[in-house]
């Protein structure tokens, strides 16, 4: 590492202007060095990919070597894949600042000893590793490298050997060229007697405060330069651990989940990439909003989808009544379907005779029965069970044959396994099953449903499930509803484990998943781990979880540790206070949020007559547009169309959430879809309507109240719901 003065202890703002200017000039020169190295590495990577071989260099090279991708003769195919994926990033990765932080480790004093092998070293930290040459020491370390951890975790009380932490300020929207480096800030650590912890240091950093306050435009950004210690702890937990983050609104759950994904991919590329990493979000608008974060962290190619995207690809042509939807999402359905499937298995009702040339082998009913019963008791997937019965029946035949004429050969065994009589026996006791057949058989037949549902489903629930008018002639012609696809997936999973299985799954807004949806994910992460993100207070679906314990069990991660995050980075204090009033009415136990951001503007705009609301909203939006940042108009779903019309009549262009970048700064959003999103200025329309929009209306209002980064205007003719007004 270059650098003659690793213990540069300038206090923030204490430097004379001339000294700061010199420092800035030095850091700009370093920026140029990094950019030149990056350009060379990218060109070299492209060249190697064109040639289809070579040695992995530059970013990720450290972990790739550790993991043996390049070094130990692991297949050329793996190397090719690796290079191709890297080259893809080279092209796709947007330009940006080559580094955002610097660590100067101490060379003397007690903290110098703590520094260990890093004693006296200076490290720059960035989104990706930068090196001038594969064998040269890196110019910039990847933020995920082990030593970078001190950048996030070192405090004056526990300096971890760090003498000073430097943060860099870059012009927003710049390309990360030297001229875009606009400021720097030093934080001396390891000064005996200095107080403070991570959070205090974050608040005292002007650069962090500026980043948190920066107006929100476009999709979500990464927070890698300003991750807080408690967030970093979650990000860096190992691949074998499932964790659950119960985070109040705006505490960075989504950000933490995405950064953990990037961390796992970097640190455990083989383990995680083998299975693949999956990010699950509630809807397309949300996925669009978060889609740029992983690529900006250098990780393209991660699958980001909804639970519905994972389900069997049948066309949805039927719609369920609400009571049917509710039962189909209920955990009891898993047991009902299990029974319906296994109701097909029967015990043998006689002996089995299998011809073998001029001879006939006879197997007795008792021994056949034992095979079926024992296989059932082992609870293998249904299809595995069928093959197990076949194999064990053939083994019985082999014993007979062996006693008569010595051990038969492999060919004989294969021939026996394919015997018509044996397959007929299997079809009788353990018939093949297809998910469509099982589900159609259950929903289309009151007797089958009554048998499978006995003791599990009440009579009205069974009636709600039963296909009355739309009973199909065959499972092929069945018309499936959205919820039916969950049932089909469940049965498919009982028949055979899904082929698609992920090394790690990040689930956002997990409180909103039904038990049956949770099971879709549990099936696909059987050998992996989960990052479960959510907020019980923001549960708005009919089946939203009221506690994490049961939700985590449905997700197949009952041992996941639940960690609360309560420090909010989005909603300012004055607005958090309003939202917190609602918590008492929500019937869930969650710690209240507190805001890292002081201030916030709350305006109430009472409207005299309901008919005037759209025009008043348009007027307020026009006012909001005079200031910087995004504007979100949040309302009950039924109002959205009228509000869009009112805005367009007033000459204000607006868009729907998730639309590809357009010029509009205004988004009109159904409260249901506002989850996970944020706007600098929110115009909340008729909160009383949102509160009354269903059994979870107050939760929905809580979501809507917590979307504003700076300003919240509440517009309506119907007053505030009592729970908030209190
Ligand atoms: N350490 C941080 N530094 C800067 N900004 C941060 C930090 N943590 C979170 N933020 C910002 O706070 C906002 C909220 O983050 P995020 O959407 O991840 O929160 P959340 O807990 O998922 O919120 P919600 O529950 O409302 O969906 C985002 O703009 C995010 O970039």
Automatic annotation (TrEMBL):
Gene3D superfamilies: P-loop containing nucleotide triphosphate hydrolases. The keyword Signal does not apply. This is AAA family ATPase. Residues 226-572 form the UvrD-like helicase ATP-binding domain. Residues 39-51 have a biased composition (Basic and acidic residues). ATP binds at residues 247-254. It holds the Pfam family UvrD_C_2. InterPro entries: DNA_helicase_UvrD/REP, P-loop_NTPase, UvrD-like_ATP-bd, UvrD-like_helicase_C. The keyword Acetylation does not apply. It comes from Streptomyces diacarni. Keywords: ATP-binding, Helicase, Hydrolase, Nucleotide-binding. Residues 1-21, 39-73, 87-119 are annotated as: Disordered. GO terms for cellular component: cytosol. Residues 10-21 have a biased composition (Low complexity). GO terms for molecular function: 3'-5' DNA helicase activity; ATP binding; DNA binding; hydrolase activity. One of its GO terms (biological process) is recombinational repair.
């Amino acid at each position: 590492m270059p650098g003659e003065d690793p213990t540069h202890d300038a206090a923030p703002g204490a430097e004379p202007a001339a000294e700061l200017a010199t420092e800035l000039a030095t850091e700009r020169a370093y920026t140029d060095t990094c950019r030149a190295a990056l350009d060379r590495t990218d060109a070299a990577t492209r060249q190697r990919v064109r040639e289809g071989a070579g040695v992995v260099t530059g970013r990720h090279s450290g972990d790739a070597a550790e993991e043996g991708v390049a070094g130990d003769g692991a297949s050329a195919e793996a190397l090719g894949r690796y290079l191709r994926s890297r080259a893809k990033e080279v092209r796709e990765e947007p330009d940006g600042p080559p580094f955002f932080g610097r660590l100067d480790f101490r060379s003397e004093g007690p903290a110098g000893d703590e520094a260990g092998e890093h004693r006296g070293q200076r490290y720059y930290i960035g989104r990706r590793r930068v090196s001038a040459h594969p064998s040269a020491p890196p110019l910039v370390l990847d933020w995920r490298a082990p030593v970078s951890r001190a950048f996030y975790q070192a405090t004056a009380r526990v300096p971890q050997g760090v003498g000073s932490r430097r943060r860099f300020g870059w012009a927003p929207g710049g390309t990360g060229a030297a001229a875009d480096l606009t400021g720097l800030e030093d934080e001396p650590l390891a000064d005996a007697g200095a107080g403070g912890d991570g959070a205090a240091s974050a608040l005292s950093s002007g650069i962090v405060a500026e980043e948190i306050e920066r107006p929100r435009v476009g999709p979500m950004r990464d927070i890698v330069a300003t991750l807080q210690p408690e967030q970093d702890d979650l990000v860096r937990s190992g691949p074998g651990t499932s964790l659950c983050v119960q985070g109040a609104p705006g505490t960075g759950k989504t950000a933490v989940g995405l950064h953990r994904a990037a961390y796992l991919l970097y640190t455990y590329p083989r383990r995680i990439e083998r299975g693949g990493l999956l990010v699950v979000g509630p809807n397309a608008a949300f996925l669009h909003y978060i889609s740029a974060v992983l690529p900006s962290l250098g990780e393209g190619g991660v699958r980001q989808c909804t639970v519905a995207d994972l389900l069997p690809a049948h066309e949805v042509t039927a719609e369920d009544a609400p009571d049917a939807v509710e039962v189909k999402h209920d955990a009891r359905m898993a047991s009902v379907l299990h029974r319906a499937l296994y109701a097909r298995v029967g015990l043998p009702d006689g002996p089995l005779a299998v011809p073998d040339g001029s001879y006939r082998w006879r197997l007795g009913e008792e021994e056949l029965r034992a095979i079926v019963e024992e296989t059932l008791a082992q609870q293998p997937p249904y299809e595995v069970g069928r093959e197990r019965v076949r194999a064990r029946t053939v083994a019985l035949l082999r014993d007979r044959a062996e006693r008569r004429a010595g051990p038969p050969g492999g060919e004989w065994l294969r021939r026996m396994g394919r015997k018509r009589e044996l397959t007929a026996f299997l079809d009788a006791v353990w018939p093949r099953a297809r998910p469509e057949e099982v589900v159609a058989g259950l929903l289309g037949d009151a007797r089958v449903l009554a048998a499978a549902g006995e003791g599990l489903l009440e009579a009205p629930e069974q009636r709600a499930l039963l296909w009355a008018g739309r009973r199909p002639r065959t499972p092929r012609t069945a018309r499936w509803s959205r919820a039916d696809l969950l049932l089909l997936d469940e049965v498919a999973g009982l028949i055979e484990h899904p082929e698609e299985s992920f090394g790690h799954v990040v689930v956002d807004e997990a409180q909103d998943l039904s038990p049956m949806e949770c099971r879709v994910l549990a099936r696909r992460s059987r050998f992996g781990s989960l990052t479960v993100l959510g907020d019980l207070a923001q549960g708005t679906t009919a089946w939203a979880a009221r506690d994490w314990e049961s939700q985590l069990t449905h997700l197949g991660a009952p041992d996941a540790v639940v960690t609360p995050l309560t420090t909010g980075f989005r909603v300012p204090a004055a607005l958090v206070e309003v939202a917190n009033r609602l918590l008492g009415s929500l019937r869930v136990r969650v710690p209240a949020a507190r805001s890292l951001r002081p201030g916030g503007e709350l305006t109430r705009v009472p409207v005299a007559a309901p008919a005037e609301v759209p025009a008043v909203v348009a007027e307020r939006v026009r006012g909001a547009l005079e200031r910087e940042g995004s504007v979100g108009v949040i309302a009950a779903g039924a109002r959205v169309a009228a509000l869009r019309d009112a805005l367009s009549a007033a000459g204000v262009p607006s868009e729907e959430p998730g639309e590809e970048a357009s010029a509009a700064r205004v988004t009109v959003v159904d409260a249901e879809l506002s989850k996970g999103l944020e706007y600098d200025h929110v115009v909340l329309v008729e909160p009383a309507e949102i509160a009354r929009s269903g059994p979870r209306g107050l939760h929905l209002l809580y979501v809507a109240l917590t979307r504003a980064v700076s300003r919240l205007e509440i517009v309506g003719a119907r007053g505030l719901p009592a729970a908030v007004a209190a």
